[in-house]
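ok new one. same drill as before - structure tokens go in, u give me an amino acid for every spot. 147 of them this time. try not to just spam alanines like last time pls lmao
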């Protein structure tokens, strides 16, 4: 008997000003593809919030702005998840920041707190500024949680 195994549908949605978070998003995408799982990658500007309910996993990538704040361009995504009423959506939030600031990757923490309440939060990942080759292992660990 042949059993078809279901492959979860994953989307990575991110924002990035100077490319650090974009690079991390691409590393995560590569780690997920290495597991032979489907994954889509969008900058927030190119992602339709109406599609949120069609995914099993949502991975959000963000830099941190101001004093530990979520960038403006992610506010609509934040609000949409809060209102989604889809507690079974599995989520992760990742980001890059600068530990010079008081709230290192504060935007990741702020998303984490909301995602923990509103969704099934499976992971968070914070990276100092530009991702290094050694961060690939952390991306692979996160990818392991997608199943
Ligand atoms: C005005 C400004 C405020 C920032 N505030 C924070 C902060 O509060 N916490 C933090 O960890 N990083 C902060 N950062 C650093 C950025 O989040 C960090 O450089 C990040 O890697 C940029 O990501 P990107 O290359 O994807 O745009 C700030 C940067 C700027 C320019």
């Amino acid at each position: 008997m042949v059993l078809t195994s279901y492959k979860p549908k994953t989307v990575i949605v991110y924002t990035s000003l100077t490319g650090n978070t974009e690079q991390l998003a691409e590393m995560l995408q590569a780690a997920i593809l290495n597991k032979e799982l489907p994954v889509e990658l969008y900058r927030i500007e190119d992602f339709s919030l109406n599609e949120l309910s069609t995914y099993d996993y949502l991975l959000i990538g963000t830099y941190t702005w101001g004093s530990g704040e979520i960038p403006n361009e992610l506010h609509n995504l934040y609000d949409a998840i809060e209102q989604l009423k889809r507690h079974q959506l599995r989520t992760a939030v990742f980001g890059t920041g600068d530990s010079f600031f008081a709230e290192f990757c504060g935007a990741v923490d702020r998303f984490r707190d909301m995602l923990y309440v509103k969704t099934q939060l499976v992971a968070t990942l914070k990276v100092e500024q530009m991702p290094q080759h050694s961060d690939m292992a952390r991306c692979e660990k996160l990818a392991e949680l997608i199943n």
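The pocket of flavin mononucleotide is lined by residues 16-22, 63-68, 96-98, 101, 103-106, 129 (CB under 6 Å). and btw Helices lie at 20-34, 75-84, 106-118, 136-144.
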